[in-house]
Amino acid sequence: MQPILSVRGVSKTYASGHRALQPVDLDITKGEIFALLGPNGAGKTTLISIICGIVTPSTGTITVMGHDAIRDFRAARSVIGLVPQELSVDMFETVLASVRYSRRLFGKPGHDSYIEQVLRDLSLWDKRNARIRELSGGMKRRVLIAKALSHEPDILFLDEPTAGVDVALRRDMWKLVHRLREKGTTIILTTHYIEEAEEMADRVGVIDKGRIILIEQKTELMKKLGKRQMLISLQEPMATIPTDLDEWHLALEDEGHTLRYVFDAQAEHTGIPSLLRKLAELGIGFKDLETSKSSLEDIFVDLVEHKEQAA
């Protein structure tokens, strides 16, 4: 399938010599939700800003729905909606007028029924005649999303869409993203909230220090790199872990009441039977065992730490 967005060798080095983005290759297919995951300052916003034409790349090419995003900027930008991190709206304008204005900027004819639906989806319809400066921070964020959707883009970029917003808005955002995907919209979001990527994404890209570490299907990533952990609830609290248990690299938690063992569920030998035998030999009793999968956050931390150690 032809990608709806193709990035080849895109990098950014500023005049100061700071290299904000290493050469990036990335293909996005129509209708997918792609999450670019990384800490603050990793290069997420730089990459999005380049694709959206806000920042000029130092090297590379970008193709959006067959349009060269650098040579044919207007055509490429016309199919892109962008929700930036920072609030950039006329605070004295009303919600409805601001969204209508954004639509007209892209040469779209008036379509009040569409704008009404967007505002209703974002719980803004009742606030349509309110001035933006009168709204809460969360409502202002919703206005940014409405403006980005005003011209019915095929690709929507969400740059840290729920940074600093309440849980209710975050959940509303997730629901909206899924509804947009059902309509065929392609969505690329940057986030440092691990649960956001875990909840919404089909694929996950991990970026750190301007370099994309990996791109993988979320389910495959968690299957290949995910670990499991076993929590052992002890009958008696333990002050220190006996040296006889060193080979399992256990951690003592809950004021000595719990041992945590991290293991690779895909490995031929997990080490669990031998650990339980050793506990019995040492006379260490336990009253409960609990296993759980690692989260995407665990995987992300492991990946970044591994790359730092290898550097």
From TrEMBL:
<protein>
    <submittedName>
        <fullName>Multidrug ABC transporter ATP-binding protein</fullName>
    </submittedName>
</protein>
<dbReference type="InterPro" id="IPR003593">
    <property type="entry name" value="AAA+_ATPase"/>
</dbReference>
<dbReference type="InterPro" id="IPR027417">
    <property type="entry name" value="P-loop_NTPase"/>
</dbReference>
<dbReference type="GO" id="GO:0016887">
    <property type="term" value="F:ATP hydrolysis activity"/>
</dbReference>
<dbReference type="InterPro" id="IPR017871">
    <property type="entry name" value="ABC_transporter-like_CS"/>
</dbReference>
<keyword id="KW-0813">Transport</keyword>
<dbReference type="InterPro" id="IPR050763">
    <property type="entry name" value="ABC_transporter_ATP-binding"/>
</dbReference>
<keyword id="KW-0067">ATP-binding</keyword>
<dbReference type="GO" id="GO:0005524">
    <property type="term" value="F:ATP binding"/>
</dbReference>
<dbReference type="InterPro" id="IPR003439">
    <property type="entry name" value="ABC_transporter-like_ATP-bd"/>
</dbReference>
<feature type="domain" description="ABC transporter">
    <location>
        <begin position="5"/>
        <end position="234"/>
    </location>
</feature>
<keyword id="KW-0547">Nucleotide-binding</keyword>
<dbReference type="Pfam" id="PF00005">
    <property type="entry name" value="ABC_tran"/>
</dbReference>
